[in-house]
Design brief:
The protein has 11 helices and 12 strands. It is α/β, with parallel strands linked by helices and 293 residues long. It folds into 2 domains: 189 residues, Rossmann fold (3-Layer(aba) Sandwich), CATH 3.40.50.720; 82 residues. A 7-stranded parallel beta sheet has the order 3-2-1-4-5-6-10, with helices on both faces.
C-alpha cells in the first residue's frame, strides 16, 4: 500500500514509518518543518508539507494514498487549556481524513488510549471515555469508527499510558522529566496504581497489522505490559538518576496528575489472538535501565 502517515517523526510515528517501509509499503508523510522533512526523507518516505491544522493538505494526502495512519497530536499539553486545544485540533484532523475516505473501502487507522475500568484490566470490548478531561478524544474516535457504515475501514489502536523506546517516552518519560526537574523521583499516592506499557517498535507492528487486515469499526489494544506499579517505575528512575524516590502530590504532575494517580491496567489478549500480534521488545522496567544520569 501507499500509506499517508501523520505524526511520522514522533516516538510512535518514526517506528511506524520504518515498520511500513520494511514490510513492502511506501509512505507519504506529513511534515510541518524542515527538520521533520529531513528525518522523513532520510527514512525513505515521500513528504507532504503541512501541519495538523491544514485540513485541505490532509484531505489531499488521504486522496493520494491507499490507506491512512493518523498519529499526529499537538505538542503543547502542559496546561488544561492547551490539552483541550490539542484534542480539538486532532479531532478536526481525523474528521477531515475520515470524510475524504467515505465510500472508498480504504483503511484509516487512528490512535487512542486504553480505557480505565475499575477493579480489572480494560479490554478491547470496553468503551473509551467520552467525558472527563480527554472525553472529546473518545468522542472523535467513536465518530471515526462509525464511518465503517459509510465505506471506510476505520480502526483504532489504543495505546497504553507509556509508549517507550530506549528508556524514553510516555507517562514514564514525563515522570522522568519531573524527576530531573525537581530532584525527586516522585509518584502520586502510595504508588500501587498500575500503568500499562508497550515498546514503540512493538506498537508499530500492531499499526501495520491493523492497516493490513483489521475489520472496519474495530478497536485494538497495544499493550505489552499489563500494568507496572508506578512506585516500581519511579524506583528504577530514581536508581538510574541517583535521586530519592518519594510520594508527591498529584499537582506535581500538572494536568496529568489525576490520570497519574489512577490504577489503569489493560489487556491485549484479544488483539494478540485475533491479529497475531506478539510483543518482542524489552518491557518498560527493563527499557528504563537505559536511562542515563
Amino acid at each position: 500500500m501507499h500509506v499517508f502517515v501523520t505524526g511520522g517523526t514522533g516516538t510512535i510515528g518514526s517506528a511506524v514509518v520504518a515498520e511500513l517501509l520494511a514490510n513492502g509499503h511506501t509512505v507519504l508523510a506529513l511534515a510541518r518543518s524542515d527538520s521533520s522533512e529531513r528525518i522523513l526523507t532520510d527514512a525513505g518516505a515521500e513528504v507532504l508539507r503541512g501541519g495538523l491544522a491544514d485540513l485541505d493538505v490532509l484531505r489531499a494526502g488521504a486522496a493520494r494514498a491507499d490507506g491512512v495512519i493518523s498519529l499526529a497530536f499537538g505538542r503543547d499539553y502542559g496546561t488544561p487549556e492547551a490539552l483541550v486545544a490539542s484534542i480539538a485540533e486532532e479531532s478536526a484532523a481525523m474528521a477531515a481524513l475520515g470524510s475524504s475516505l467515505i465510500g472508498s473501502g480504504r483503511p484509516l487507522v487512528t490512535v487512542s488510549g486504553t480505557p480505565w475500568v475499575p477493579g480489572r484490566p480494560s479490554t478491547e470490548a470496553d468503551p473509551v471515555p467520552t467525558d472527563g478531561p480527554v472525553g472529546a478524544r473518545g468522542r472523535s474516535v467513536n465518530a471515526l469508527l462509525a464511518l465503517a457504515s459509510q465505506g471506510v475501514r476505520a480502526t483504532s489502536v489504543r495505546m497504553p499510558r507509556t509508549v517507550h523506546n530506549n528508556g524514553q517516552g510516555g507517562f514514564a518519560g514525563l515522570l522522568t522529566d519531573a524527576a530531573r526537574r525537581t530532584g525527586i523521583a516522585g509518584y502520586p499516592g502510595d504508588g500501587a496504581q498500575r500503568w500499562p506499557a508497550v515498546h514503540a517498535l512493538d506498537a508499530a507492528v500492531l499499526f501495520r497489522l491493523a492497516l493490513e487486515s483489521a475489520p472496519a469499526g474495530t478497536a485494538w489494544q497495544a499493550v505489552a505490559d499489563e500494568g507496572d506499579a508506578v512506585r516500581d517505575i519511579a524506583a528504577v528512575v530514581g536508581r538510574r538518576l541517583g535521586l530519592p524516590v518519594e510520594s508527591v502530590p498529584e499537582s506535581a504532575f500538572g494536568p496529568f496528575g489525576p490520570i497519574f494517580a489512577m490504577d489503569q491496567p489493560a489487556s491485549s489478549a484479544h488483539t494478540r489472538e485475533a491479529l497475531g500480534w506478539e510483543p518482542k521488545h524489552p518491557s518498560l522496567l527493563d527499557d528504563l535501565e537505559n536511562l542515563q544520569p
